[in-house]
Amino acid sequence: MEESRPGSESAAFAGKGGGRFWDVDVVRGIAMVLVATYHFVYDLDFLAGYPVNAVGMFWGNFADTSAFMFVFLAGLSLALSHQRARMKVGPEANLFPKYLRRGLRIFGYGMGITVVFWLLGAGVVIFGILHMLGASIVLAYPFLRRRWTNLFFGLSVVAAGAFIQADQSWFVLPGVWGFLLAPFGVLPAGVYMADYRALLPWFGVVLLGLFVGNTFYLRRRDVKPLGQAPRPMRPLAFVGRHTLFIYLVHQPVIIALLWAFGVVSLGTV
């Protein structure tokens, strides 16, 4: 059956800790650390002038890997949060307004980053990871209770994104109109965009995370509260529970520290 079985979901979430999966929090914390590490390297390259080539082969792959973890876990977490909401307000409640508000809020954070980058002259961010996650939360609503449908569409969206990125000549629009296709993986020729994460293929990664969440995690019976995480992992679990806030503040903190140690000057920020 396509839809997850309510009985097994409820059993899994009836354990101690209100249904928190500390291992998900830990891996999400690791993803956040990797994202912050890449942004530190990016700042050394583009703000401090260090020859680290933050968009080269190694660091480019590092950025994609950390982004994949971050986005995949966002999809998995959608499955868990949706089940908690269904248990709280009832399985047939209309939760779309909740996810619409959440998606618009996160998209708004992304637009804030767009404005800040523009004001600082630090690059163009038309559709970064927060824009993509905000849009994906809204688009994913019809898929929140699905399993194999998410696997099929997730792989299809990833494949479509790979196809478009392999040959964009079919999709190019002239001039400024080219930016209209940025959410779908197409940029005007010669344009580089920092933190660019288009819906194609990244919405597919969200759906794959939803598939894993609905297929495996909602059937687990070993739900443990955060306090039962192994002691060395608790700091990472804490980071994983607050990734959105940390994501929003980590770049200003990194830049402030680089400025405090004289690595960058105010004129370069």
Q: Give the % helix.
A: 55-70%
Q: What is the CA-atom radius of gyration, in angstroms?
A: 20 Å
- Total DSSP E strands: 0
Unreliable sequence segments? 4-18, 221-225
> How many domains make up the coordinates?
1
**Biggest sheet record:** none
- Calculate the terminal CA-CA distance, rounded to whole Å: 54 Å
Q: What is the number of helical segments per DSSP (H or I, 4+ residues)?
A: 9
Class of secondary structure makeup: mainly alpha
Query: What share of the residues does DSSP label as strand, in percent?
Result: under 5%
- The average pLDDT is 85
Shape, principal axes of CA atoms: globular
Written as H for each helix and E for each strand, in order along the chain, the element string is HHHHHHHHH
Summarize the structure.
The protein has one domain (6-268). 61% of the residues lie in helices and 0% in strands. It has 9 helices and no strands.
Key phrases:
about 270 residues, globular, 9 helices, mainly alpha, about 0% strand, single chain
